[in-house]
Specification:
By secondary structure, this protein is of the alpha+beta class. It has 10 helices and 21 strands. The strands form 6 sheets. A 6-stranded antiparallel β-sheet has the order 12-14-20-21-11-15, with helices on one face. A hairpin with a 3-residue loop joins strand 18 and strand 19. Helix 3 runs antiparallel to helix 5. The longest helix is centred in the first third of the chain and has 18 residues. The chain is extended and about 120 Å long.
Length: 487
């Protein structure tokens, strides 16, 4: 019995629940004895120290001085804000005795503001260097001007001897003349901004050594009393404000080939009736015009408000065929002349010189010298703008239309000739006043236009036999539209 009991105990197998519990305990023990994986700790960011600049001039003070000597005032202020003090001895020579004492009262103001007011009364300058308050009679400042060292010059010459010095001489020996000329000039001296600035500086400063103007770098160095330096700074600021202003010219140059029913030109009074609406049309411009038609004077009108260019072009189509000569936008600086040129230049022989050289009595050498010139076939538009302080714009406008009709060769002798050009010319000059977004219309420049066309039969064999040249003459009016934008 005893043996059988022992053998039964040795063959006993653990139950399923016991096995699961054992495996769970074993797994826990293995996890507890396994060293945990090392985790990389994030590197803390590098913190830079924050420095807050604390100027002694920001200290708030309440001061009251009555007829106190300026040296005592500066000493008190330097002591209160913790700075050393140095006063230039030259100041005593510049400040008269009746201005040495100061009366001043300021409550809860930064020391910087108090020093500024005291120096403004005495016309002195202060600065802080390494804990030392320096009081000097002169201020040094460098200005960056930024002006372009380019000088333009504009000249206009209109008209001349209309009769060309023709006719018989009278009893006094003078030929018949008919002359009317308009000359306008924008001299280069008036447009040299550096020269104008030097003239102004010479009136503001006593000693010319007090400033140095460098045109190459566009810088101005000034060492003068603070009041004069401030005046120069305000002057330069105003010059920069005006000098850097630009006018955007949106210009359209159109030639209207007039139909037969409108030989007298465009009826601008009728057109302006359609353009009125919210617009305002003014003819009060200074017009100095010269045209080839005595009954069609040139003019310039200004359309203010909401001018519609497309509407104006559609109205011009009622008077004939439109030919756009130029359509461009150009930026022009204040008081700087601009020139728009569209066309071609034709060269011709203007002069031929014949020289005979005879070194001996038996031999001679003949030399010819030819001089050429050119004539312009196209349109020139010169514009010089001036912008006033209240945004009024004055424009000096000079349109010149030149049409080359022919170059005629005139022979004299057997071996040489000269060329004589024939040109149709339309020109005017006008000074116009306008506002930004206004539309300036220049018209009335009428001239006869000759056209030559060749007619041929559409049959190839007979086209060369039956052909003819047909010449036609029509009138054309030159119209210039300029819209103004200020930037």
């Amino acid at each position: 019995m005893y043996i059988s009991l022992l053998s039964g105990c040795a063959e006993r197998v653990p139950s399923l629940n016991t096995q699961l519990t054992y495996q769970q305990i074993r797994q826990v023990l293995e996890n507890a004895t396994t060293p945990p994986a090392q985790r990389e700790e994030p590197t803390p960011p590098m913190l830079s120290p924050i420095f807050k600049e604390v100027s002694p001039l920001k200290k708030t003070l309440t001061v009251a001085f009555y007829q106190e000597h300026y040296e005592n005032v500066f000493f008190f202020l330097a002591y209160e804000i913790g700075l050393s003090l140095v006063i230039d001895p030259e100041i005593r020579k510049l400040i008269p005795p009746d201005r040495e004492k100061i009366t001043l009262q300021m409550k809860n103001q930064p020391a910087e503001e108090i020093l500024k007011r005291v120096c403004q009364i005495l016309d002195l300058h202060y600065k802080v260097e390494r804990g030392v308050l320096l009081i000097t009679p002169y201020e040094e400042r460098t200005f960056n001007l930024g002006f372009i060292p380019v000088i333009k010059e504009g000249r206009t010459a209109m008209g001349g001897d209309v009769l060309g010095n023709i006719g018989q001489a009278d009893l006094m020996g003078s030929p018949l003349r008919g002359e009317f000329t308009i000359n306008a000039q924008v001299p280069s001296d008036s447009l040299d901004i550096y020269k104008n600035l030097e003239e102004i500086l010479s009136t503001l400063v006593i000693d010319k050594k007090a400033y140095t103007l460098n045109r190459l770098t566009g810088t101005l160095y000034v060492r003068e009393r603070p009041s004069k330096v401030n005046t120069i700074a305000k002057l330069i600021e105003e010059i920069k404000k005006t000098y850097k202003r630009q006018i955007i010219l949106d210009a359209k140059i159109i030639e209207v080939e007039l139909s037969k029913g409108h030989n007298l030109g465009v009826d601008w009074f009728e057109i302006t009736n359609f353009l009125m609406g919210n617009n305002r049309v003014s003819f009060n411009t200074l017009d100095l015009g010269i045209t080839t038609q005595s009954n069609q004077p040139s003019f310039a009108l200004t359309i203010s408000g909401q001018p519609n260019v497309n509407l104006l072009l559609n109205l011009l189509k009622e008077y004939g065929e439109l030919k756009v000569i130029s359509n461009l936008k150009v930026r022009v600086l204040h008081s700087q002349p601009a020139l728009i040129s569209v066309g071609t230049s034709q060269s011709y022989i203007r002069e031929v010189k014949r020289d005979i050289i005879s070194p001996t009595t038996t031999t001679s050498t003949v030399t010819y010298t030819t001089q050429t010139s050119s004539v312009f076939d196209g349109i020139l538009l010169g514009i010089t703008p001036f912008i006033s302080g209240d945004d009024e714009i004055f424009l000096h406008i000079v349109p010149i239309k030149s049409d080359l009709v022919e170059l005629k060769d005139v022979r004299f002798g057997e071996n040489y000739f000269i060329t004589l050009p024939r040109v149709n010319l339309r020109e005017m000059t006008s000074i116009v006043k306008a506002k930004p977004n206004d539309l300036i219309v220049i018209g009335g420049l009428i001239l006869d236009v000759d056209r030559a066309r060749e007619r041929r039969i559409a049959i190839p064999i007979l086209s060369e036999l039956f052909r003819s040249n047909v010449k036609s003459s029509r009138k054309a009016e030159l119209v210039i539209l300029i819209r103004l934008l200020v930037s």
